[in-house]
Amino acid sequence: MSWIDQDPRKLLQRCFIIGLVGILLCIIPLANTVWTIFDPQKLNFLNGFGLLAQLIALSIAVYVLRMRKIAEGPKDKAKSMVIVLGVALVFFMLR
């Protein structure tokens, strides 16, 4: 059984965790530019991994949104997850 063929609630939980990790990976270099703890050039690669994690989480949320015959609860959570991840993705791309 593929991991994508699971319960929508479990997929949304994974989406939340992956999205949170992606947002945290993008915040670390942003906070480093303010406090300059490490060399900023050495932490720029974390932005790429953070954006990748956010894109993966966004694709999982859209997949759950496109599933057929699911309850309204997971569908509403997927809608809010798409909005939050989309805004975070745009913010960190424009930074």
UniProtKB/TrEMBL annotation:
Keywords: Membrane, Transmembrane, Transmembrane helix. The chain crosses the membrane at residues 12-38, 44-65, 77-94. This is Uncharacterized protein. It comes from Echinicola strongylocentroti. The lineage of its organism: Bacteria, Pseudomonadati, Bacteroidota, Cytophagia, Cytophagales.
